[in-house]
Description:
Blueprint lengths: L17 H6 L1 H10 L8 H10 L1 H11 L4 E2 L6 E2 L9 E2 L4 E2 L1 H5 L2 H4 L4 E7 L4 E5 H17 L7 E5 L4 H12 L3 E5 L5 H11 L3 E5 L1 E4 L2 E4 L1 H9 L6 E5 L32 E2 L3 E6 L9 E5 H14 L8 E4 L6 H7 L7 E6 L5 H7 L4 E5 H9 L4 H4 L7 E5 L5 H11 L4 E4 L1 E3 L4 E5 L13 E2 L5 E4 L10 E6 L9 E2 L6 H7 L7 E9 L5 E6 L4 E3 L2 E3 L1 H8 L5 E8 L9 E7 L7 H14 L8 E4 L13 H8 L4 H4 L19
Parallel strand pairs: 5-17, 7-8, 7-9, 9-12, 16-17, 16-18, 18-19, 19-20, 32-33
Antiparallel strand pairs: 1-4, 2-3, 4-13, 5-6, 10-11, 14-15, 15-26, 21-22, 22-23, 24-25, 25-27, 27-28, 29-30, 31-32
Helix pairs in contact: 3-4, 7-8, 9-10, 14-16
Amino acid sequence: xxxxxxxxxxxxxxxxxxxxxxxxxxxxxxxxxxxxxxxxxxxxxxxxxxxxxxxxxxxxxxxxxxxxxxxxxxxxxxxxxxxxxxxxxxxxxxxxxxxxxxxxxxxxxxxxxxxxxxxxxxxxxxxxxxxxxxxxxxxxxxxxxxxxxxxxxxxxxxxxxxxxxxxxxxxxxxxxxxxxxxxxxxxxxxxxxxxxxxxxxxxxxxxxxxxxxxxxxxxxxxxxxxxxxxxxxxxxxxxxxxxxxxxxxxxxxxxxxxxxxxxxxxxxxxxxxxxxxxxxxxxxxxxxxxxxxxxxxxxxxxxxxxxxxxxxxxxxxxxxxxxxxxxxxxxxxxxxxxxxxxxxxxxxxxxxxxxxxxxxxxxxxxxxxxxxxxxxxxxxxxxxxxxxxxxxxxxxxxxxxxxxxxxxxxxxxxxxxxxxxxxxxxxxxxxxxxxxxxxxxxxxxxxxxxxxxxxxxxxxxxxxxxxxxxxxxxxxxxxxxxxxxxxxxxxxxxxxxxxxxxxxxxxxxxxxxxxxxxxxxxxxxxxxxxxxxxxxxxxxxxxxxxxxxxxxxxxxxxxxxxxxxxxxxxxxxxxxxxxxxxxxxxxxxxxxxxxxxxxxxxxxxxxxxxxxxxxxxxxxxxxxxxxxxxxxxxxxxxxxxxxxxxxxxxxxxx
Length: 654
């Protein structure tokens, strides 16, 4: 694997003060455990207890957070070891996500639940009381349309309060939610929603992005015509609010959805009852429809948001996302811990200013946004009042050590930078931050509580300080309950359990350090294998994208089993830069010195853009397939991409 990076794991960038440790939510939990005979003093001791005494740990999460529901007297786990083996969590318990998300409507009804902003200047506030009233009305409307337990409600909505209200109304009925962002093309949406056969479609007439308006009326009609199970379509006139019929209070329109003012109620459902269907990226083939349960999501998000992000009552929580990325599902989980969630619709313009204006205390973005801020020379901590910030989240791809350092040089010394790695598959992170631990550049602080993350060698041996496959050897309640239309579980098993039976293989390269810190090196299925030296692509990008002339990059190894191929580097240049002989020479020299002589690219090509999914992930595997002869239309689904037009520059002939 990659050579050790001398900047990874160097002197801490951040260390917790005694006051931070004393006030941390996880410290309160430790004291609560001490009173119950669990004598863990450090984060490492707590983590080891959480993955050794799995049942006791997850039972404690239910009790500590006083989950709204009926625990019953059943075991925490029954059946097999993993979900594909018949594992059942909290058999006999009942719960409802919406009841837990809206508990503050009774406890602190006048506190702000939602702050909404849009790039066009839209600004709305909702208290917990107002949010609950809207949910009650939409719940009654959905019920009048025949929606009940187990029915699917599909949403083609941007990140707006209406999406949150409709989701909570759906969950309150025991119906199943599934959403796509309106920047998804029609075939991409149909590929997803047709699999789950929804009863109701909720959609907007259009959306705005980067100063432009995009009508979606024709797309909505096309989606509607492709979903024969629909009993109704509800259109929200978001792009043209002037045409909105009289709606709910605070001006939240829901088109022609019937309302009758019934009080808010919650359907008690079994712990593993489906809450939502989320999807794999879908760059090739049909996206996998991944089903998570009410109870598993409630417990995991309570744990992760409270004990890792240290978010709770009084916090203002923002993450830049769309409804088509799992981080939307994670963001709205802020309601579970009583925080205010900030929903933003639009292009990622002036997000640091949004944080300042809304007094955000936890600011989350994808790693590329932090790196773009670095390259642009931004200094938001000097230009804006970010004094409310306590935490900064980064996810979506590995954040380089330089990105870590920039945050503390340009944003501020006080917030904890929480690099977070997990996936849609579990709707959370396996590894992430802790306010109890120091932070070093390039190192994710810890493995998540209840997540028995290990680095496995090829022969299935756990190893410290070695790069290997990221695996989980114990289950988590937010693992998928099942995949939709996967009756025998074969697709589920092939996705995670084909390499190490009984052990979840996630598909990332990870190094677990002696002290529990972790370094993620990228996807293991897009490995660079040069002369027997394997390396994650994150190592490569870190070197290449440190050049000021390079805005983005993609590296592909065309080698096959038993046959070494070409190592091809594609670069998107910054304005005014050119792929000169000098830049090429410096790139190769830096890669030779930083990685190895075997990782100097055979070819370097300039391209107008790097292909990415709608959630911002680089399309490494589809491009590799194209270079090996697969037609573009078979290798990648353009409707799942942010910029499908660039794929033509990645063919073998170019």
